[in-house]
Design a protein that fits this description.
183 residues; alpha/beta
């Protein structure tokens, strides 16, 4: 629902296996993570499953049921929705998968750590440093401003198709931050 503050309830998905792989890569000094599937197919980690269940249990105790959930098409976001809705006891709440809620596209820098970017693409690391992460667009990827453009159309959809309804959004960290910018 659009709240008094002007923003719908939104949440980052629970911890994914990719988050675990990224942390292991950073801790070991690796140049990239070892995920061997497409980012959109990466599932929740066991901790992520428990986090999604805890969110649902909290929702059951503290908030009224939502009328709909808008979800990123990524597996981990959809798993987060399904687990949280089940634990909340909100049977029959539709999950609307919306491609515009997908993770920011990282292009040629996908799966690389900061050290990996500096090592493999030093010119891109320098360009990102000069432009800042808000405006920098990696080759084949998106800037934060690109993400904001697609989220503005999601807001239009919310106002047009879900006016007066309680809507939750489950997506990704950059998406949540960019929604905050839009609102």
């Amino acid at each position: 629902r659009i709240t008094a503050a002007g923003s719908p309830a939104s949440s980052r998905h629970a911890e994914g296996a990719g988050n675990v792989a990224r942390e292991l890569a950073l801790a070991s000094g690796a140049l990239s993570n070892d995920i061997d599937s497409r980012d959109c197919d990466v599932p929740l980690s066991p901790l992520g499953e428990r986090q999604a269940a805890a969110l649902g249990q909290w929702c059951r105790r503290h908030i009224d049921p939502v009328d709909a959930v808008l979800s990123s098409p990524y597996v981990r976001a959809q798993e987060s929705c399904a687990i949280a809705l089940r634990e909340a006891g909100w049977n029959g709440v539709p999950i609307v998968v919306d491609e515009r809620l997908r993770e920011k596209e990282f292009g040629m820098l996908d799966r690389l750590t900061r050290d990996g970017i500096v090592h493999r693409f030093p010119e891109q690391a320098e360009m990102r440093r000069v432009l800042g992460k808000f405006y920098y667009r990696p080759p084949g990827g998106e800037s934060w401003t690109d993400v904001i453009l697609r989220l503005r159309s999601v807001v239009d959809t919310l106002l047009r198709e879900h006016a007066g309804r309680r809507v939750a959004i489950v997506s990704h960290q950059v998406i949540v931050l960019c929604f905050r910018y839009v609102f």
